Amino acid sequence: MLMAVKRNVQKLHLEIGDYYDLAFELPRRLFNCKSLRKLELVSAGVAEHRKIILPKSMCLPQLEALALVKLSISSVELENLISSCPLLNQLHMFKCDIQAGNQQNLVIDSPSLQTFALTDTPRSFRLEDCIVDNITKLSAPNLESFVFKGFMTQNYCLENFSFLDTVSINMRLGENETTERYSTLLAEEKEVFAGRMMKYLGAFYNARILILSPGLMEVLSQAPDLLNCQRLRFCNLRRIDLEMWFTSSSLHSLAYLFEISPIISHLFLTSKKTRITEVGDNWEVGLSFPSL
């Protein structure tokens, strides 16, 4: 690694294997490399998350793309790493375990960020081995592409993204998704999850392409007065890709998306199998709009 830095490396892919149960401390000179433009840190072993330790002082003035895969890292170190990259425009975090330490919230703040993908992060951060309520805040005013795959039990604060073009959200309750699991949710759980889904959609008001998961469509219909709420408008939305169960809940959510998307031109539906037959006889009426 140090030889690569000495020779002004621009792209570096580093795989960390299994070294017992020890944390892997990365050299300070690597994270103060003036020439590095792309950095990929990957846990290649069988361990679920490989613990890494970053230097306290970091400066990557040319770094544009950063990928972290199956790593365990403290929230403070992650925030310091992102803030040390003023030109960062691509950030991908896959199956990373973010340790809260002495703070409950994680803040990802990057004015230059254009593409962000957060995939299969843990359900919550850990504070002294206890599961605590936490918020992940994303502040990226120039974001163009947002990809998220995770759990509804997590809470996110997503600020308005005026330049956002493509959004893909896959939110679920657990690994094995079924309509039965959603039908047995408590009323309070449905209300909380539906409120979060509305909040997330509100942050993506300017998107042109929207890709949504079955679980999101199920809980979205639980938002109070959903079909009568016209405050949210997708004025630029052209295309919606949906994987959904054809239940009454999902169809009501679909009707709502039609209502708030006046210029949509492409709709792609993928049907997921379900044993529940709760569509009813009047679903066609619910999806009939003069504007379609």
Automatic annotation (TrEMBL):
It comes from the Eukaryota. Residues 6-151 form the F-box/LRR-repeat protein 15/At3g58940/PEG3-like LRR domain. SUPFAM superfamilies: L domain-like (SSF52058). It comes from Papaver atlanticum. This is F-box/LRR-repeat protein 15/At3g58940/PEG3-like LRR domain-containing protein.
